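Milestone 3.1: sequence recovery, worked example.
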């Protein structure tokens, strides 16, 4: 079978979806019209070429190109290189096709007809690339890029109320003002209005939070501040009671009253400090946790038990976790 079959039989054979024998007959008819045909002498390369002709005729262009490349590795020649370029060209892989067309022109034995076709194909691909580059450049000056990401990912994205996909996502839009809404299941929606200028690229980063997670942080922080204030005030009062007791040593009744008041105030102060510390730690944990399991764990009781120890010299508070 002739090496030139694929170069000329593609359009004809593509109209035929019959059995293999029909394709071989068509290939032989096409080969008979080639004046400058050269036979493939290597049997393995010839078998690969015949498989490529079959695949090409059935529309399997990438398979045909791969078989032709294998044949070319065994028996490199200009016609095989041209045919490889043709298969890639028709499959839309223009850059790869251009390389094989150039290779076919650099090898000896390519008929003049195929030389002209290869040269025209190279020119067409080059012009197409230049047109694409010009169009991309022109588009970049009249459009804007919007990239939206979120933590966690896979959140729904809406632009001006219309769904456009999931995060992360990159969009090409006309210049203007847009409302970006990011929604994640189990999270508060994130809204942001962005201004896109021509040629600009804007990145929206949505950090999604669970409902009420910040509310708990605020509550914990407020409780910590309130408890700290109580602790400071009662601590000052306890110190004042202690100073008064020093001056009332000659009055046993008053001394005992001041001592009892001081112990009570000291106990309240220690309790306030303890609650303030626990609330502050809880708020910090709530603020730092951002994954689902950890967030759910935040809603469980912290599990600490306060123990108040009364001693002759005063009182102390400790927590058992």
């Amino acid at each position: 079978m002739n090496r030139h079959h694929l170069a000329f039989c593609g359009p004809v054979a593509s109209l035929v979806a019959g059995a293999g024998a029909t394709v071989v007959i068509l290939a032989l008819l096409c080969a008979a019209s080639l004046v400058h045909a050269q036979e493939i002498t290597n049997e393995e390369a010839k078998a690969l070429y015949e498989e490529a002709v079959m695949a090409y005729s059935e529309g399997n262009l990438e398979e045909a190109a791969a078989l032709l490349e294998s044949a070319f590795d065994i028996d490199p020649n200009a016609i095989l290189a041209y045919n490889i370029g043709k298969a890639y060209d028709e499959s839309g892989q223009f850059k790869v096709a251009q390389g094989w067309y150039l290779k076919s022109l650099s090898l000896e034995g390519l008929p003049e007809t195929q030389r002209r076709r290869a040269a025209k194909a190279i020119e067409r691909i080059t012009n197409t690339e230049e047109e694409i580059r010009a169009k991309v450049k022109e588009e970049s000056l009249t459009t804007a890029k919007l990239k939206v990401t979120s933590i966690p990912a896979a959140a729904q994205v809406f632009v001006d109320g219309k769904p456009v996909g999931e995060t992360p996502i990159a969009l090409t839009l006309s210049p203007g003002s847009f409302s970006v809404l990011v929604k994640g299941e189990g999270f508060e929606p994130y809204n942001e209005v962005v201004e896109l200028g021509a040629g600009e690229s804007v990145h929206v980063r949505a950090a999604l939070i669970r409902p009420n997670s910040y509310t708990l942080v605020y509550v914990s922080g407020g409780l910590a501040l309130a408890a700290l204030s109580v602790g400071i005030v009662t601590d000052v009062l306890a110190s004042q009671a202690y100073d008064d007791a020093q001056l009332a040593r000659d009055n046993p009744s008053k001394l005992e009253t001041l001592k009892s008041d001081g112990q009570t105030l000291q106990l309240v102060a220690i309790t306030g400090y303890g609650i303030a510390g626990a609330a502050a730690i809880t708020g910090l944990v709530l603020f730092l946790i951002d994954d689902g399991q950890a967030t759910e764990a935040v809603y469980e009781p912290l599990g600490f038990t306060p123990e108040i120890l009364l001693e002759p010299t005063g009182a102390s508070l400790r927590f058992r976790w």
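The two ends are 87 Å apart (CA to CA). The first strand starts at residue 144 and ends at 151.
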